Amino acid sequence: MDDTDKLIINVLQKGFPICESPYRQVAEQIGITEDQLLSRLQTLLDDGVLSRFGPMYHAEQMGGALTLAALKVPEERFEEVAEIVNGFPEVAHNYARNHTLNMWFVLATERPEQVESAIEQIERQTGLPVYNMPKIREYYVGLQLEV
Amino acid sequence: MQIDAIDRQIIHATQAGLPLVAEPYQAIAEQLGLTAPEVMRRMVNMQESGVIRRIAAVPNHYKIGYCYNGMTVWDVEDEHVHSLGQRVAELPFVSHCYQRPRHLPDWPYNLFAMVHAKTEQDAERQIAVIAELLGDDVRRHAVLYSSKILKKTGLRIAG
């Protein structure tokens, strides 16, 4: 990853235009060609430096729901349970964390009632109770990490 | 915003990512049998109404050097949690901050703040700043560092 890659990551975390040739517009801003931007972006995605590039959809704003939930997974079952949880399309993110509640995932669904049904299915398939922690209030969401 | 069937098709076509071609909105339009101006107009509407938070790159924290991603959780007085949450959220290094329900007895925490740092020292410095801001209102706290990203796809609607 060189300075141009870092610039691409920093610029593209902030946003991306909706216009006929958006990559050309961003490439000009960065000072590279459109082809260079497209090929570097492809490499950053292939290498996993970027998890994703595109629209970030907000479940609640489209009439759906979001929640944060956690599981206490016995260490010897961790991989098996991760596979079950990750298999749900409703699971948008899942992280291992250093706590007895060691698996934390975000459920994002198109319709509100799908959250409850996903939780029930995860409990049934894993045999573990899900600690559901839907937000009561949101104070700030604005993650942008400078490279 | 009430999304309609065509918005939904656009969401489905782009939720995994925007096409990496010179005219991505044209490519989406062709795939869905729409025109590029129609796709762009609808995406602008969705962005303005918040259905699209933004169109952006999502980095893997670890791969760009942020190895200390801590979910800091705090057990604070319910009467003060709202004002404290607002103040914690103003700290420049806090990316997300939420009030969430406790699960007593094993989960007493009601205020969550995410921090991201390149070194453990930086992370601990950030956590110390939050602790100082919360002061005597904190009964106890914990920091849950992520040890592995198990999945990171974002919202997926069914086809």
TrEMBL record, chain A:
Q: In which pathway does it act?
A: Porphyrin-containing compound metabolism
Q: Spell out the Pfam families in the cross-references.
A: AsnC_trans_reg2, NirdL-like_HTH
The UniProt transmembrane annotation reads none
SUPFAM superfamilies documented for this protein:
Winged helix' DNA-binding domain
Q: Where is the Siroheme decarboxylase NirL-like HTH domain?
A: 5-50
Question: Keyword set for this entry?
Answer: Lyase
Q: How does it assemble?
A: Probably forms a complex composed of NirD, NirL, NirG and NirH. All proteins are required for the total conversion of siroheme to didecarboxysiroheme.
Q: Which family does it belong to?
A: Belongs to the Ahb/Nir family.
Q: What is this protein called?
A: siroheme decarboxylase
From TrEMBL, chain B:
Known function = Involved in heme d1 biosynthesis. Catalyzes the decarboxylation of siroheme into didecarboxysiroheme.
Q: Which SUPFAM superfamilies match?
A: Winged helix' DNA-binding domain (SSF46785)
Write down the top EC class of this protein.
lyase
The pathway to which it is assigned is: Porphyrin-containing compound metabolism
List keywords of the entry alphabetically. Lyase
Q: Which family does it belong to?
A: Belongs to the Ahb/Nir family.
Q: Which Pfam families did the record assign?
A: AsnC_trans_reg2 (PF17805), NirdL-like_HTH (PF22451)
Q: Which stretches make up the Siroheme decarboxylase AsnC-like ligand binding domain?
A: 63-151
Q: What is this protein called?
A: siroheme decarboxylase
Gene3D superfamilies attached to this UniProt entry: 3.30.70.3460
Say which domain of life the source belongs to: Bacteria
What EC number(s) are associated with this protein in UniProt? Answer: 4.1.1.111
Q: Which residues form the Siroheme decarboxylase NirL-like HTH domain?
A: 7-53
* Catalytic activity, reaction form: siroheme + 2 H(+) = 12,18-didecarboxysiroheme + 2 CO2
- Per the record's keyword annotation, is Transmembrane helix included, yes or no? no
Q: Would the keyword Ion transport be found if you checked this record's keyword annotation? A: no
Question: Signal sequence span per UniProt?
Answer: none
Whom does it interact with, and what assembly results? Probably forms a complex composed of NirD, NirL, NirG and NirH. All proteins are required for the total conversion of siroheme to didecarboxysiroheme.
Species this chain originates from: Methylomonas rivi
